[in-house]
């Protein structure tokens, strides 16, 4: 329990450190003295990461970073005022660092605003422009089958193409929840029509032969298992935790992606974030604390405390004062650390344990 308490305070400090004066919330502080010199540079704003951080920060008693971040999104994030979507990542000053679209990021920011403003209409009105512009962009770019733009997945490694009528399962779940959240704040039937169409499409992403939700679905679909499927339950609540399709999906994650207790993103993942000057070494991924905590949250939704503790404790047994992006099975590879999203997912788990 002492270690958990220590890591709670450490997590709050990491979140504070990553929340900058201009409202930007960065993934990690690569400029800090204790940041590994051989780890990839992560002082960028990924709106998705920041959205998760904003929501759990409230639960941890940090309530002064959300509004500056939402203002940063509206006023500084390059391109948002024109198109209503967020690019893949940004420099702290708001200039885009990558021009690819990860549509889940826009939806996740809507979810974060909804959680922050829940039940407070005055707060909601402050972010009406942000929410409506984002929801309109998501809805208008959905043609009933797929998004009309090329989209990038949350791991930044794959694309879906409109001519192939493809969607990423995780991204689709995020957009459904984002549109539902937007409608709860500022009712718009068009958003619900799009969300319902997306939900119907999402049902097609379950492959009964393989027994799990697949990474993508389209004319040519990627049938492989991906740990991001956990997002269908938390935080997006699109598929109930006790739905047999979801149980089967988590079973596949455990069987194929759990390596010595650590959950990997997908099979044969090479990314490790370990650099040799400007070259990425790609010597093989480790287990991701984010994913172990994500699995723990899934099991908590089932009321399965044993498996919650199994995944939660696996991380705690292998870390000291900070939570990294990855945990390797050797002392050679170097991970990004601390990673704010890892700390955020830890705090979500602590909330479920009644410790926040």
Model description:
The chain has 356 residues and is mainly alpha-helical. The chain has a single domain (2-352), classed as Glycosyltransferase, CATH 1.50.10.10. Helices cover 46% and strands 8% of the residues. The protein is built from 13 helices and 12 strands. It has helices at 2-18, 47-59, 66-75, 80-83, 103-116, 121-126, 128-140, 169-185, 189-203, 244-257, 289-302, 305-316, 340-352, and strands at 87-90, 96-101, 151-152, 159-160, 167-168, 206-207, 212-213, 216-217, 258-259, 262-263, 275-276, 279-280. The strands form 6 sheets. It has a two-stranded antiparallel ribbon with strand order 1-2. Strands 3-4 form a two-stranded antiparallel sheet. A hairpin with a 4-residue loop joins strand 6 (206-207) and strand 7 (212-213). Helix 11 packs antiparallel against helix 12 (305-316) and helix 11 packs parallel to helix 13 (340-352). The longest helix has 17 residues, at 2-18.
Q: Top keywords for this entry?
A:
single chain, 356 residues, mainly alpha, two-stranded antiparallel sheet
Structural class: mainly alpha
Binned strand content: 5-15%
Strand order of the biggest β-sheet:
1-2
Which residues sit in consecutive blocks of at least 5 with pLDDT less than 50?
none
The number of domains is: 1
CATH class descriptor: Mainly Alpha
According to CATH, the fold-level topology is: Glycosyltransferase
Radius of gyration: 19 Å
- How many individual helices? 13
**Helix/strand order:** HHHHEEHHHEEEHHEEEHEEEEHHH
Average pLDDT, all residues: 98
Q: Give the biggest beta sheet.
A: 2 strands, antiparallel
Summarize the amount of helix as a percent range: 40-55%
Count of DSSP E strands? 12
The rounded distance between the terminal residues' Cα atoms is: 13 Å
Form type: globular
CATH architecture: Alpha/alpha barrel
């Amino acid at each position: 329990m002492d270690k958990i308490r220590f890591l709670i305070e450490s997590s709050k400090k990491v979140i504070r450190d990553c929340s900058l004066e201009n409202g930007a919330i960065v993934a990690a502080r690569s400029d800090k003295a204790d940041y590994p010199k051989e780890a990839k540079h992560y002082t960028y704003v990924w709106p998705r990461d920041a959205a998760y951080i904003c929501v759990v920060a409230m639960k941890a008693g940090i309530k002064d970073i959300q509004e500056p971040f939402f203002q940063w999104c509206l006023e500084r994030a390059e391109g948002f005022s024109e198109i209503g979507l967020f690019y893949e990542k940004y420099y702290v000053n708001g200039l885009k660092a990558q021009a690819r679209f990860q549509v889940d990021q826009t939806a996740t920011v809507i979810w974060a605003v909804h959680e922050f403003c829940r039940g407070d209409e005055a707060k909601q009105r402050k972010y009406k422009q942000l929410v409506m512009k984002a929801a309109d962009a998501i809805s208008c770019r959905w043609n009933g089958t797929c998004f009309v733009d090329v989209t990038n997945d949350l791991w930044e490694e794959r694309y879906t193409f409109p001519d192939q009528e493809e969607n990423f399962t995780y991204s689709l779940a995020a957009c459904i929840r984002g549109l539902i959240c937007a409608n709860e704040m500022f009712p718009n039937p068009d958003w619900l029509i799009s969300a319902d169409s997306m939900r119907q499409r999402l049902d097609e992403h379950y492959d009964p032969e393989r027994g799990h939700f697949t990474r993508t679905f389209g004319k040519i679909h990627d049938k492989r298992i991906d740990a991001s499927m956990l997002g269908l339950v938390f935080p997006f609540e699109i598929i109930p935790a006790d739905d047999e399709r979801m149980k089967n999906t988590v079973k596949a994650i455990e069987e194929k992606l759990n390596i010595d207790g650590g959950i990997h993103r997908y099979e044969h993942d090479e990314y490790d974030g370990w650099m040799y000057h400007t070259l990425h070494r790609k010597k093989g991924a480790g287990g991701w604390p984010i994913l172990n905590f994500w699995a723990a949250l899934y099991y908590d939704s089932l009321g399965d405390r044993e498996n919650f503790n199994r995944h939660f404790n696996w991380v705690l047994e292998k870390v000291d004062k900070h939570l990294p992006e990855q945990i390797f099975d050797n002392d050679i590879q170097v991970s990004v650390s601390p990673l704010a999203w890892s700390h955020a997912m830890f705090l979500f788990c602590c909330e479920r344990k009644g410790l926040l």
